[in-house]
Design a protein that fits this description.
Elements: H1 2-19, H2 24-47, H3 51-73, H4 78-95, H5 101-107, H6 115-135, H7 138-160, H8 188-200
Helix pairs in contact: 1-2, 1-3, 1-4, 3-4, 4-7, 6-7
Subcellular location: Cell membrane; Golgi apparatus membrane
GO molecular function, one term: sugar transmembrane transporter activity
InterPro entries: SWEET (IPR047664), SWEET_rpt (IPR004316)
């Protein structure tokens, strides 16, 4: 589902960049992203078990794109309507990771929210916000400005509910619990028993 939605978003931005002059960067970046997404979806559909469900999702996203284009053509300003659609979908994409916030607050564990994803998303949003500001394009500034804030919120939540990694515990021989032990290795309990047996031996 996320890859289908991202493909739809990239396709919308490519169409927007083709309509609005001077948006070469938007066109190139989203066209490359669209190619990657389509290749991944093709490989995924080839090897996934639920091919019908995945194909249905892809067809649904295609229908959403066609419906968006059809409705945009009925409006006085095609670029404005299409840009507004891009804004809505982009903000939804940035806000999607926040869907796990109730789970995080319940479990007090933010491991289900990867910080690297939020960090790179925030950096990308800030860069595109700067580009939109330089180009005086509200359709680029609004979603990416909102996206940078949403990603920052995700990072704050991750930091507040981050569970520190457990420190490794070594036994008396310097081995970790999951280490491969030598054939003559004795556990703590076994070594204790052996020591007691030795003490109980008659002289």
């Amino acid at each position: 589902m996320p890859y289908c939605t991202t493909s739809l978003l990239s396709l919308l931005w490519v169409t927007y960049a083709l309509i609005v002059p001077g948006r070469t960067c938007v066109l190139v970046v989203n066209f490359i992203a669209l190619i990657f997404q389509l290749v991944y979806l093709a490989v995924f559909i080839r090897f996934v078990d639920a091919k019908r469900r995945t194909s249905t999702l892809c067809a649904t996203m295609g229908a959403c794109y066609l419906a968006t284009m059809f409705l945009s053509l009925l409006t006085p300003s095609l670029s404005s309507t299409l840009g507004n659609c891009c804004v809505v979908v982009s903000i939804c994409m940035y806000a999607a990771p926040l869907a796990v916030v109730p789970t995080i607050m319940k479990t007090k564990d933010s491991s289900c929210m990867p910080p690297l994803y939020s960090l790179t998303g925030m950096i990308s949003a800030l860069v595109w916000f700067g580009y939109g500001l330089a180009a005086s394009d509200a359709h680029l500034m609004i979603p990416n400005g909102s996206g940078s804030v949403l990603c920052a919120v995700q990072l704050v939540i991750w930091a507040l509910y981050r569970v520190p990694a457990a420190k490794p515990v070594f036994d008396q021989y310097g081995y970790l619990e999951d280490d491969i032990k030598p054939s003559n290795y004795l556990s703590d309990s076994e070594s204790t028993v052996c020591s007691l047996d030795y003490l109980l031996l008659e002289p």
